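Running this now, will post back.
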Amino acid sequence: MKKFIIPFLFATFISFGQKNLEKKVNSLIASDNFQTLRIENFFIHTNKSIYFSGESIWFKAYVTNSDTNFPSLETTNLYINLYGPNRSLISSELFFVENGMANGRIELAKTLESGTYYLQLDTEWNRNFKSGTIFNVIIENLNPPEEDTKFNTQENTNNSVTDLEIKKGDEELIKFFPESQTLLEGIQNMIIFSTKKNIKGLVIDDNTGKPVASLKSNNQGIGAFKILQNSTYSAVLNVDNKEIRVRLPHASEKGFIIHKISGDYNSESVDFQIITNNKTLEEYDDSYVFAVLHREGSIKSVAPIEISKGTKEYKISFYKENVFNGLNTITLFNEMNEPISERHFYWKTDSTANIQITKSKKENDSLSLNLLLTNKSVPVNISVSVLPKNTKVYLQKYSIISSLLLLPYIDNHNSMVNPNILTNNELDFYLQANTTKNPFPYKDINNANLAFKNENGITLKGSINTKIDDLSGYKIMLTSKENNLLLVQPLDNKKTFEFNELMLMHPSKYQLSLLDKKGEIIKGTFYVFNSYTSYQANPNLIMPFNLKKEMAKIEAENSKLENFDLSSTEYNDFEELDEVVIKADRVKEDQETKRKLRKLGVQGVGFSRLLEPSKSPYAKGDILQYFNTIPGVTVKYNQDNTPFLNNERFLKTLNNLGDAPFNIILDGTPIGTDLTIINFRQASEFEYIIVNYRGAGFGALYPKGVISLVTLKGTNGEKIAPANPDIQINDTQFGFNFSNEPYEKLVLTFPNYSSKENFETLDWIPNFQVEPNRYNPLKINVEDANGIKLIINGLSATGDLIYEVINID
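Update: finished.
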């Protein structure tokens, strides 16, 4: 039996004291129509929309609970599957979700062909309910084959949209959507319509030939009109100087209409009229119907309505506290728990966060900003794309608001229909025209019959080769300094082992050892069968039919975007982009240096940013000045005026809202957070500075980050103590992709400034906590850009959403 706590709302004439009525309501709530399942919704903020082959897609993923939009605290394993233009799987990577958020990067091979690529976000648990959520990006190969110099995903045609649609039939040109899925005889009906282009026309009574209403679509191709349904009607449209006549749907003899009464989002309630006709009243006289406010079967409110033979109109109101943020559905049920009418509507709660941004100062290539959260009392975690103001690599496709509040519940994939800029009526009409999905998609599903279980971590299986026959009392130990793991498991006289729910990074190392009854390490050989999760990505991307149609439209639009022809396209006042060169030598050099530092015993190098002050223009300045040039690092001072380095990229929590001082390691010796010992030294005295923003590789010692300093006469290559030969060191074959390194863009050489302004990327900040009631300083890389564009998405622990596109001169 499902359990709900439901606010019951009534028309003024209802008395709820009747036990019989209460029994009927409880029977309806307990029916298989409704559910209390945990449904996940997904959004991905990529640092831009268009990539060159060889780049990385830097992203921030958000996983929320569909009912509340709160971050999903149960989800840890998020899979991001990359599919090519032919919709075949290219890669499937596992990312760790913490407090509903994950960030990282997906590397793109230089050999990828130009086209539209698809990012699918999915979890094993999500497969119980729906396919993974699909987003798309564009990839342009800088060195395409000679016969493929023009980006093209679909054959172009000279036919206009109108011509194509008319050839398919006039009914495809305009579609009608009655307000409650049906027209009802004898009453005034509101009819929403959608078109392929902006049109005007008249509604004609077929019997009299007289016009009874006019129709006109808005910029979204949506409109509405009202008619008294006592005849048959046709819409007469003028399309390209041709008269097109389209028949309206026929009306039903019986039924109910759910009409939304106009109102704004500041109202204390959202109000509806339940309207019926005389024939329906004869059937329902002296009985109840039940208006249930829900979203995909998750109930918010129930309103019983007693039908009286003399009354054709009934008013119900739902308090705004009992309404979902985003899409809502009202379904009308009879006493047999059968749905008889339904209507969708959108409601904006006060859960949208507002951030004010002011410039502080610009130093060299960095710009300091102050962010102020103006209307919330809890922190909001945001991701920020930083691009030139005139960028061509950002297409306004997705926002966290439309992707979480609208996209999961409608057929149309146009997720950039921004609910925040459309009027109440425009959103209302848009939903009626685009929401034809089953309002109860999880009917008959319950927790007992779910096929896919929630995953946390990975599983590692293997066996032990040892001469010891009786292993009772023996144990196997798994350790990993990089992963902060120390696990001991009894063998119970078995020579096979299995570790579950491991939070293993990949690539990383772990050690296996055999412990005797005294707990001492003894010789043993380990064979690791595999490390895996239950989730398997589909080799080919499966799209719902309606989503295929929308993606085809997107691909057709992309094929018309001239700015992808990098060899010959001319822009209004821009010069031709002749050549883009990828510089990879520096990456190889960094890898060699990191290997050298590992041999010298420097920890956490693989998760760190490697800097060489001697190659910086600030090498002759003091070390504190140099630290201030490192993104995410700020020199601050304690009350006693001692300096420390603050980690601006440390993920703060409600329990830890203060500074996050880096721990400093000087030539292998920890010196704490106080910089006094190196305060007046020159930057050129240090050979390497290794910035580890999360302290990865140090276990739980330095959760707020580590900066390792290697002086020119520092770490001298002293011999590292040999490892215990009875401990077997293994490389991971699979695990979580932890991209802890700070953002590094692909190094491109542009022939002129105009091209750079169009195709350059500047910075990417995946995790920034904006605290309420204070200014939050943020330093971003802007180089010499003539104005910047900030694309901001964000989420708080209480489901507050933010989406902003801000231009700064």
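The first strand starts at residue 40 and ends at 46. More later if anyone needs it.
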